[in-house]
Each structure stands twice: as structure tokens, then as C-alpha cells.
């Protein structure tokens, strides 16, 4: 065996280096599983809550999902270069749907809190801010959160409002699978108040005088106001980054403000002009 046989040829060295470079570039291009799937299949399944009102409902004429959550989901998919599959979810099952892979993302009236942040990922830029309010009979005498102490309150299963209602205000919370069931229980006298997002309660009372004329939302301050975010599975950094770029662009272009106005959502969310100004400033 001659000495040259112990050393690779220049051609083999070149092939080895080329293979290493190709592997490196492929590794750099590889995203997390969800973003890879969206890019390869050009489809994304997004879970949305359609509990009624301008933030999400079913159009009775067309059976299409309409409102804030579906509009945001459709536009997010478009900007990610994908067709959207809108999957109706409930507060009681939305986390399970995301973790099990039934949906890829959530735009589901689900605000950020630390407990959720420990088990799921999320795009850090919020697209809204929502707190809870209580619908009560006008004859109930309830005017502040403290008036709920010792009383039965209806809410959705999985609602973030349950913990403060119980721990801060001493309410006895009954959880229902959907907000519709919770509100029906209120009308049936099963509880003295139904606590849900202000974005659900206020339009419901304002636009349905025939059914809800005897109810109002007298408590001035929201319970647990928190940022609304797009949720992902834990650790999906590439998906999070791609979604967050879209959310920032929503703010920068004023798309969210225009959509809120077009859908007739009132009062306007004060957070949106603040974030628009911030991201326009960052872009200049």
C-alpha cells in the first residue's frame, strides 16, 4: 500500500466539503414542524371561537364563519401563503385541539396569562386587549365585582376569569362547555351573573333588546384585562416569528383598526392606535 492511499484525493475532499455545505444550508432552511407543514402543503388549520357577536359567529344565511376571529385567521393564512381551514373551537377544548394537532394555530378569544404561557407558545405582539364583564339582571342589585361573593356565577369551562372570580371575589363558579350555555343558564336563573369577554357581553346586550332587555353590565372595570395573542404549540420558534411579523404588519398598516371599524366593533380598542404608532415609528 503506497503512502498516497492513506490520504483522500482532492476530488473526494471537494465532494465532502460540498456535501457538508449542502447539509448546512438545508439545515438553515428547515423550519419547525408547523411552519414546514404550512410551507409544503400551503394549508393551515386555525382554531376560532364563534360564540356569537362581532368577534365570531355563524352567518345563518351562508353558514360561513364571520367576525373578528375568522377575519384575522383568513388574513393570517393569506399572508403566510396558505389556504385556511377554519376550525370552530370552544374554551373547553381549544388548548387540546392545538396540542393534539387538530389545529396549527389558535385565534380563539384566548388572552395571554402565565399559566397558558407555560404550556403553549404565542406570537408576542398582541392583536387586541380583552377583559371580562358580568351580565346580570337589572333588578339584581349587583354593581361591583365584590357583590358576587358567595353567589353562583356562570362562565365557560377553561375561562381565565374563573380563578380571579373564585380567589379574589369569592364567587362560586359554574363552568359550561360554551358561552351560549352559560348565558342560557343565566336566563334560566341558575346563576346571578354570567362572566365572559366584554367583546361578547356588550354587543349581546346592546343588539338584542327583545331577549336581553332585562339585563345589563353595570360593573365599570373589566376583570383580568389581558392581551389577545395568536397561540402556537410550545417551542415553535419559526412559526412564532412568522406569525409575529404578520401581526406587526397588521398594526403598521392599520389593517386591524380598519377591520374593527368595518365590523362595527365598539367602543374601539385603545391599544390598537398605540401599537400602530409604535410599529410605524419602528419602521421609519
CATH architecture of the largest domain: 3-Layer(aba) Sandwich
Radius of gyration: 24 Å
The number of helices is: 12
Uncertain segments: 1-6, 20-28
CATH class wording of the largest domain = Alpha Beta
Overall shape: it is globular
Output the CATH homologous superfamily of the largest domain: Periplasmic binding protein-like II
Order of helices and strands: HHEEEHEHEHEEEHEHEHHEEEHHH
Summarize this structure as a short list of keywords or feature phrases.
about 280 residues; alpha/beta; D-Maltodextrin-Binding Protein, domain 2; three-stranded parallel sheet; about 20% strand; globular
Quick summary:
With 284 residues, the chain is an alpha/beta fold. Helix content is 42%, strand content 21%.
Describe this protein's structure.
The protein is α/β, with parallel strands linked by helices and 284 residues long. The protein folds into two domains: 33-127 and 229-269, D-Maltodextrin-Binding Protein, domain 2, CATH 3.40.190; 131-225, Periplasmic binding protein-like II (D-Maltodextrin-Binding Protein, domain 2, 3-Layer(aba) Sandwich), CATH 3.40.190. The chain is built from twelve helices and 13 strands. It has helices at residues 10-29, 33-41, 68-79, 94-99, 114-119, 162-167, 179-187, 198-207, 209-212, 237-253, 255-262, 271-283, and strands at residues 43-49, 57-58, 65-66, 83-89, 105-107, 120-122, 128-137, 152-156, 172-176, 193-197, 215-216, 223-228, 231-233. Strands 7, 8, 9, 10, 11 and 12 form a six-stranded mixed β-sheet that branches. A three-stranded parallel β-sheet has the order 4-1-5. β8 (152-156), α6 (162-167) and β9 form a beta-alpha-beta unit. The protein is globular, with a radius of gyration of 24 Å. Residues 1-6 and 20-28 have low confidence and may be disordered.
Amino acid at each position: 500500500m503506497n503512502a498516497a492511499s492513506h490520504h483522500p484525493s482532492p476530488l473526494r475532499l471537494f465532494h465532502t466539503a460540498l456535501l457538508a455545505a449542502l447539509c448546512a444550508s438545508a439545515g438553515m432552511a428547515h423550519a419547525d414542524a408547523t411552519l414546514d407543514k404550512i410551507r409544503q402543503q400551503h394549508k393551515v388549520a386555525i382554531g376560532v371561537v364563534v360564540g356569537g357577536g362581532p368577534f365570531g359567529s355563524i352567518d345563518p344565511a351562508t353558514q360561513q364563519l364571520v367576525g373578528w376571529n375568522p377575519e384575522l385567521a383568513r388574513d393570517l393564512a393569506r399572508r403566510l401563503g396558505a389556504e385556511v381551514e377554519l376550525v370552530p373551537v370552544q374554551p373547553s377544548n381549544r388548548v387540546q385541539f392545538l396540542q393534539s394537532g387538530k389545529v396549527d394555530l389558535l385565534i380563539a378569544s384566548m388572552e395571554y396569562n402565565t399559566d397558558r404561557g407555560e404550556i403553549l407558545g404565542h406570537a408576542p405582539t398582541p392583536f387586541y386587549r380583552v377583559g371580562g364583564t358580568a351580565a346580570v339582571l337589572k333588578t339584581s342589585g349587583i354593581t361591583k365585582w365584590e357583590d358576587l361573593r358567595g353567589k353562583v356565577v356562570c362562565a365557560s369551562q377553561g375561562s381565565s376569569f374563573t380563578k380571579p372570580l373564585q380567589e379574589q371575589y369569592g364567587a362560586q363558579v359554574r363552568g359550561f362547555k360554551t358561552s351560549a350555555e352559560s348565558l342560557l343558564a343565566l336566563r334560566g336563573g341558575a346563576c346571578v351573573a354570567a362572566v365572559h369577554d366584554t367583546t361578547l357581553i356588550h354587543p349581546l346586550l346592546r343588539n338584542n333588546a327583545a331577549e336581553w332587555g332585562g339585563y345589563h353590565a353595570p360593573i365599570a372595570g373589566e376583570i383580568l384585562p389581558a392581551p389577545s395573542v395568536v397561540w402556537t404549540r410550545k417551542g415553535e420558534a419559526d412559526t412564532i416569528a412568522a406569525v409575529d411579523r404578520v401581526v406587526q404588519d397588521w398594526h403598521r398598516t392599520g389593517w386591524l383598526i380598519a377591520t374593527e371599524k368595518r365590523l362595527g366593533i365598539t367602543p374601539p380598542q385603545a391599544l390598537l392606535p398605540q401599537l400602530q404608532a409604535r410599529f410605524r415609528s419602528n419602521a421609519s
